[in-house]
Specification:
This protein is of the alpha/beta class and 178 residues long. It has a single domain, classed as Rossmann fold (3-Layer(aba) Sandwich), CATH 3.40.50.300. Helices cover 36% and strands 16% of the residues. It has a six-stranded parallel β-sheet, with helices on both faces. The longest helix has 20 residues. It is globular. The model has no long low-confidence stretch (mean pLDDT 94). The structure holds adenosine-5'-triphosphate and magnesium ion. The site of magnesium ion (MG) has 4 residues, from α1.
């Protein structure tokens, strides 16, 4: 029998595919009877297809909880305190899910982004992930993964942009980007 060991997985880098890679892993996990929760730190502006696809699988198998709001200010100026509050609530939800014993895989979608903007504390996240129940798999997505998270992780994949349609002026496509 393969050993059961919860993996800490990080999908980062500037190329497209971090969240979709986490969704693909979640899809595979559901097929193996694993219970999956994805908490989303930053909610995009569109209605994402995965929200409805997860419902088709069943909320008891794959639950997605969007917990951010639209767009967070990027660079310059101060981060809106409301966005910091939402990010911290999302982290709390992810943390509780990891420790609850109810889930086999917990995806923290875009957590890297909120750590890199100091909306949540890197050390707190890293310590909590280090001490988590051993069998729980965790996936952290988002650009600019924190070096301490990368160090702790068992698997880190960096998406590298080779080509993206956006640079040709092709906008986000339904079913591919949202
Ligand atoms: P996806 O959700 O498609 O897997 P992602 O999680 O890797 O993308 P994010 O940083 O979360 O990337 O950005 C989400 C949105 O930005 C998506 O609509 C995606 O198509 C777009 N995007 C991702 N990478 C790039 C890029 N290199 N250039 C332009 N747009 C991008
Ligand atoms: Mg993403």
């Amino acid at each position: 029998m393969p050993e059961e060991k919860g993996l800490l997985i990080v999908y980062t880098g500037p190329g497209k595919g971090k969240t979709t890679c986490a969704l693909g892993t979640a899809f595979r996990a559901v097929g193996q009877g694993l219970k999956v929760l994805m908490v989303q730190f930053i909610k995009g502006s569109w209605h994402y297809g995965e929200l409805d696809a997860a419902k088709l699988l069943g909320d008891d198998k794959f639950e997605i909880r969007p917990m951010g709001r639209g767009f967070v200010k990027i660079g310059g100026g101060e981060t809106d305190p409301q966005d910091i509050k939402l990010a911290q609530e999302c982290w709390l939800a992810g943390h509780d899910a990891i420790y609850s014993g109810k889930y086999d895989l917990v995806v923290l979608d875009e957590i890297n982004y909120t750590i890199s903007y100091k909306m949540i504390d890197a050390d707190e996240v890293v310590e909590a992930l280090k001490d988590r129940p051993e069998r729980v798999h965790v996936i952290c997505t988002g650009r600019n993964a924190h070096p301490k998270l990368v160090e702790l992780a068992d698997l880190v994949t960096e998406m590298r942009e080779v080509k993206h349609p956006y640079t040709k002026g092709i906008l986000a496509q339904r079913g591919i980007d949202y």
